[in-house]
Amino acid sequence: MSTRARPPRPGRLAPAFALALSAIARAARGDEASGADADGIDVTVEGERLAPRATEEAVASTVIKGEALAAPGASLGDVIARAPSVRLTRTGSGADVTTAGLRGASTAETPVYLGGVRLNDEISGAADLSLVPLFWLKRVELHRGNGPVELGTIGLGGAISLVPGLPLYDELRFGGGLGSFDQHSAFVAATGGTSVARAGIAARYEGGTNDYDYVDDRGTRFDASDDVTRRRRNADAKLGEVFTMGSAGLGERGNLRFLFNTLSRDQGVTGLGIVPALHSRATTRRTLGSITATVRCASEPDDETCSLESTVFAKVSSYYLRDPELELPFGTPALANDGAMGGARLVFHAEPWRWAELDVGADQIFDQLAVDPLGPIDGRAHRSSSRAFATARVTPLEDEKKLAFDLALSVGSARTGASLFAFAPNDPRPKGLTFLSPEVRGGVRWQPVRGFDVYASGARYVRLPTLGESYGASESVLGNPELLPERGPSVEVGAALDRRFKSIGVALDGTFFARFATDLISYERTSFAILRPFNVGSARVLGGEFSGVFALAKTIRVDGSFTVTDARGATESGGLALLPFVATYAGSAGAHVTLAAPPRSAMQRATLGTSFVYRSPRPADPAGLILLPAQLRWDADATLELAGGALTLRGRVANILDDRSTDAIGYPLPGRGFYFSTETVMR
Amino acid sequence: MRRATLPVAALAAPLALLACDRDVAPPAALDVPRGPCGHALYVLGTDYQSTELGVIGFDGAVLAKGFVSDASATTGLSAPLAGDVVAPTTPTTSGDIVLIGRTPAGVITWIDPLGERPVRQLAVGAKTNPKDYAEVTATKAYVPRGDVNDDAETPFERGGDVIVVDTVAREMTASIDVVGEVAKVVPGFVAHPERIIALGGAAFLVAPTYGPGFKTSGDSVLVRIDATTDAITDVLVLPGMRGCLGLSPSPDGSRIAVACSGTFGGGSNPTLDDGGVAIVDVATRSVASTIPATAIGRPPALAIAWSSNERLLVPVLGSIDLGTDDALVEIALASPDAPVVALDGAEAFTLGEVRCAPACGACFLATKAAVLRFPLDATGALGAPTSSDPRTPRAEGVLAPKFIGVY
Prior knowledge:
The structure holds two protein chains of two kinds.
Chain A: H1 15-30, E1 61-65, H2 76-80, E2 86-90, E3 98-102, E4 112-114, E5 117-118, E6 137-143, E7 159-164, E8 171-179, E9 183-193, E10 197-208, E11 213-216, E12 228-231, E13 237-250, E14 254-268, E15 281-296, E16 306-322, E17 334-353, E18 356-371, E19 379-394, E20 403-418, E21 433-449, E22 452-463, H3 467-471, E23 486-501, E24 504-527, E25 530-552, E26 556-570, E27 576-578, E28 585-596, E29 603-615, E30 618-619, E31 627-628, E32 631-642, E33 647-654, E34 673-682
Parallel strand pairs in A: 4-7
Antiparallel strand pairs in A: 1-6, 2-3, 4-5, 6-7, 8-9, 8-34, 9-10, 10-13, 11-12, 13-14, 14-15, 15-16, 16-17, 17-18, 18-19, 19-20, 20-21, 21-22, 22-23, 23-24, 24-25, 25-26, 26-27, 26-28, 28-29, 29-32, 30-31, 32-33, 33-34
Chain B: H1 2-18, E1 41-46, E2 51-56, E3 62-69, E4 85-86, E5 97-101, E6 107-111, E7 119-123, E8 134-135, E9 140-144, E10 161-166, E11 171-177, H2 179-183, E12 190-191, E13 196-199, E14 202-210, E15 217-226, E16 231-238, E17 244-249, E18 255-260, E19 276-281, E20 286-292, H3 293-296, E21 305-308, E22 311-316, E23 326-332, E24 340-346, E25 354-357, E26 362-366, E27 371-375, E28 386-388, E29 400-406
Antiparallel strand pairs in B: 1-2, 1-29, 2-3, 4-5, 5-6, 6-7, 8-9, 9-10, 10-11, 12-14, 13-14, 14-15, 15-16, 17-18, 18-19, 19-20, 21-22, 22-23, 23-24, 25-26, 26-27, 27-28
């Protein structure tokens, strides 16, 4: 079943409405290649949701798109921070490791996909959002409930899907940005094609010293008299990236889409603020790509009754850390990890009856992890995963929008192996491991009146141990081949209103969820400076998510969200303790005013906006003794479109209140910053 | 516009209420009279992420739970105590509870149980990894620093030494170079000052030596520092004893026991070949005897204590890989080849420090869930233990008692 919003079938709709939705559907189906603009040009379509959702399945989701993805100096973490239930962990500037989890889940439990290619590594399962380009992203889909089964696991913590998209027109686009802490960037992108084939290529560079000030308390939290303000050193970063996408028609019935992205980043690794590393550097490289071919059974372009989609994808990545002075806690002057992943997916889609949609698919994925390939460890582990999945969506009532049931099933098997096992070559335990990962999710969505629906779903999910967790990630972070998959059930129930009343639009969404997990994988110290993972935990997460959007014509848009989460893990004494780093309360608010200029004026449009993000105090340790202070970040932004939209100027003041709270102990975050960007389009 | 601001206001009101952080209360006064062994014992419960301090009497009674913890101050760039905190090997004589924050910051924390300003701190150098604290006079303490920070901004912050701390002014006044002195007798290896004790107008420091990256290890040394001149007077090499982390003076002060884990060689399980216990005669400053780890059966852990002048207690390391447990071994010096396992079956790497107070007739062992108090007979032999749990309810099952100090 598609992760994207499926349009109602045309036969049931007024012709104009159907035409508009059909256009959206084409853009959505063509996603990476075809239609929708990446730069957020508002093509407001009658009937488009004010708060779009990522899927019509009965799961809560949030979609971020448009100007929110173009804010100067903003990273993906900044962009998703305002969405409900996002747990963000930043370790510094936008060039430093940033991870996210949904509904109290860890980053390892929250898969992140770029163009359908999984980004999470096989060391710890983390997906570093700082390595995700906002450039050419069409939208960010936060599947807060469960993840889309065709992309991978249903998910202990939902999923984040990053959907790239080409601009609509043949164009040359270039621009750049400047900002605080010597941040600078430049890009150039060209898009062109015919009615049969389109392609685009972009190159981007960004860098910065990231030398912001922070208060070094010197570890003496009981004595503020010795606090000193320091400037962050060895935090510079340079990133270069090439991105290309395209699509081509395959006769009347098919099309082919491709995506290729490669990037390289060199940066200082400054580590903890109180004991900064001054000589350590890291190089990260990642290349990913996918090719998808879709063939419809019918020749009519809008006929969705039957299609076959095949995708091949691959990702290779490497991380090379140089620590000549042994300033970081790894105890080695060089640390390298190489990862590779490749696979293929086949999905057959059918709509055998007007009231039923069916997707049946299978995928095969190979993962490989090499730890310290330069030696002396040279540990290598691999996994071969086979999976079959099926989704069904049934709309049994006469009016198909009134009631819909959806069901997703996934049965997977993974076989792993390693040339070195937990870095103990003589360990007698078998190196081959086999995991089964049966998952199921079912839901119902009911729309009693137009624009208002209620939904409920339940799922059972599984997360397999990463190769690093099974076989070890370094000399001091060992593996454990006896790890079991994390698993558990989840349920959610929600209601959403999305209506327009003439020039006024209102969207409200509320969801209550519960998630339970057993055999959670957690690292424990098992010897001097040695960590090893164990299935030690169980947890339950209860919560509610509420969001709303109010829009007045195209002039005013106000949005907000509020999340309450009670995430607790079982302790050995039988009690329940708050899970670290999960804020009990989080909220956001934003307002944007857009002024359109009269025709033929130099300025086409101007937008002024502001936003707040709040997180309540949250524990930073399992015992709940260390409490990270509340966080309140206030941003303001402005956009000016000139010359008929050919020139766009953007400005942003980030963290106006100069909030210095941190996401992780020891890692200072930037204070107030000013960022500007310009973008020129030649068509 | 007016309508547009309503949702913001509606959100702002509850958020403003939520913005108040948890109140942080200083520790309440703890008035425990001084006895023959000191005021009381304090126990550090930790999971290496956060730390909580509880106080128990020499009779095993719990006197305070969560007296000071990571919840006792606000969190900023650092946690108030963080997770790598130990207690001094030598009982403090000042009446202060002293904590040594090893990594990452390197902080000495003094807690006056009766003071108006109960907590004072001194940063002794980032990346220097202070390991212990010993009050050698009424106004002076020694702090060994295990690592060297080549990027230190001042010589005082470099490490690899023993720093002299003015305990009244709470400042560093001098540095006693250890790395350089030890290099003269154990060439090719770098000394990492570890534990220190005050004894008879001097201080004795144990320092294991390691090669680059801790991949290899050399013989450990016992360094004597004159507490009057702050000068190193002796560096005694402990032949065949590597990875020495535990140190304890005999009750009569005539001998020092050194516990050595052996060589880790970059792995998580030390070998038994070069571990064991060395007994050093204080008067002659020589190794009186050694008890190899092979005789004990498992490698000594990070502490050692005398239950009498003729009897030692040594926690030993189990191994998850090998399926062995931690244990507490009792060694009578009259029969060193026949150690007695006083406690077994503790999950590997869960036993903490052992402390003895022979004058009070008891020894104490930190275990995963409690502190065990072993009564002593006249010979120092252990009786059946009783347990005390100085943890607060929220620390139970999360933090494990690991380190024990005496004030």
